[in-house]
Amino acid sequence: MATNQAFKRLTREYVEILKNPVPFIKAKPLESNILEWHYVLTGPPDSPYEGGEYHGKLIFPSEYPYKPPAIKMLTPNGRFQIDYRLCLTMSDYHPGLWNPAWSVSTILTGLLSFMLEDKPTTGSINSSTEEKIRLSKNSHYYNINNPIFRKVFPELCVTQVVEPTEINNEIDNVISLNLNPPSLCKKNSLNNKNEKNFNTKDKNSNDEKKVILNNMNDTLTTFLKPVRDNKWKIIFGLLIIYLIVVKVLTRMEIKIVSPSSSS
Fold this sequence. Notes:
Blueprint: H1 4-19, E1 25-29, E2 36-42, E3 53-59, E4 70-73, H2 104-115, H3 129-144, H4 147-152, H5 167-175, H6 193-196, H7 203-224, H8 230-262
Antiparallel strand pairs: 1-2, 2-3, 3-4
């Protein structure tokens, strides 16, 4: 149970975080226990963690701010073990180095800075840059399947829990005109109405459509594969659909006009 001093101090720090958010950092205490805080670090640009969401928690002692908190990370990240007490200057591993003037913002800023380094410590792990990038891409999907994350950070979640999808599979889905690729923290907004644009009056036009799709897939595969961002993949997918619709309708119009012209 928090002492009166710890309660006042942590309440004041939470108000300060709300007024002056720290870049790449979100943090808030549990409603049921002000001594347990949960945080989300966002991977900074130009790092292997870019765009990743890294959920963790701070467990403060009742003697805070005179004693430091335990620090854990709960999202797989390639830098730290998950749900493991980290040995850092501002953690409970080194109470002798703790400064009571440090705050939640100070602690998490220091954690993010240390995460971007390669220095080993108790609770750290070694992994390749490629592995860290892979984990960053799946971090959001991992988090929204965590009930505690959904409860503490509902603004970062959706009502529908989705499974992670590898980037290459997402690109293949767009190339094959799959109109429902996964997106972060948003429901799929595309629906079956797009498919109605491809309905034709006879089987011959359906065969022509398949030929056109196959030809355009072969041509555009090389062009689309470098596209890594979900938003752009959706935009390019819609562009492909538009071009195919125009092509199919043009061919159908030519078929209809040609008999009358010959007569």
